[in-house]
Design brief:
alpha/beta; Rossmann fold; five-stranded parallel beta sheet; four-stranded antiparallel beta sheet
Amino acid sequence: MPAKINNKILIMDDSLALLKIMSQTLRQNGYEVETAVNGVIGLQKIETFHPKLAIIDIMMPEMDGYEAAKKIKNNYPDTNIVIFSAQPAAVVEKQAFAAGADLFLQKPVREPILLGIAKKYTVTDVAEGDEEKETTLHYEADQPYIVHIRTCYFCGCNNVNFFVPRPEAYEESWESGLFPKYTAKEGFLKWDFMRTMVGVCPSCLFASYDINDFAIDPRHTSFPYSGDAKRILSRGIAARKKMIGVENTDTIFSNPNRPIQRVIESFLLAEKGGNGLVIGDKDGVYCDIGYYTTMYAVLKYAQNQDKIEYQNNLRESIELFSNQLKIQSTSRITRAKTYYFLIALNMATGASIRANELKQDLENFYRKTGGASDASYEERIWNERLLYIWKEGVNPDKIRELW
């Protein structure tokens, strides 16, 4: 059976121009739409229209969005509610969620976000066995990477391009001590993996180097983190766009040949976006942010050769990875990865005594937990990388060769 969809959407706003634009966009994409200029009319229409999603403005005459949302939540609990407003989120967001909103959005709402929300909140069920369908673009035999098309967990945009290296196409080397270098095998085209490590949502600029931070199937857009983390990300969309100074990022962030400056910005986006996930429930969030900041430091160093700035940036990354070890629930895989980077970063900054202490800490951890014999494949890989850099060291000159 296919996914069950109720494609009816009710929009309440006292702006006739906005109602016209939003309703036209949604209707052109296959949705049934009704509109209302205030909450009173909206509640009258909901009785006969039975929408799956109600998009409600806060400031309306006769009945405002808060009251309308409360009545809908009480009388029509199966209807999803999105409240939007031109007022600052810090002023109205808390009250919007208290009124029963499933999501708060800041006006204006861009078309990709509107369509993503419509898709997210109109799907009611997915047939068993039909949950995970990977969308992969066609690739030639000598192409060293595969492009996965994923859906942004946050805004629902289903056109996030994730470039994944084909294991048979590359030799992986960790001789730099911080990040892998990929060398194409015979018969495969050369490709600079560093340019595409971070996948960036073209709609809301949520960014990650972990493919699991995006949905496999466009119909599955439930956010994997806590509601508080999601709201922080919601407030951060405009800030992230302002931070990189670019409005139209659709093609730039989906380009396997993007320039170094855009690559640096993609890691900066991932770092700033990741800060909103600190209070989420994802395992290894400090480790992830530390990864972003370290990569940002490496690329800046490759670009400007400023060793003092490089060392200072690496020390900031050390603090983030250290925060990860303070979380008792950190998984063994994440712990192994965190220790790897902490030791490598301390070696890179000349703190050899601290690096040795951390290595002993990791050995003590394995002694307490019965050893590393039952480690997963990924955990063993990180431990093998650690043994390699412990023997070979971390060479700053090798870092520059990564780009």
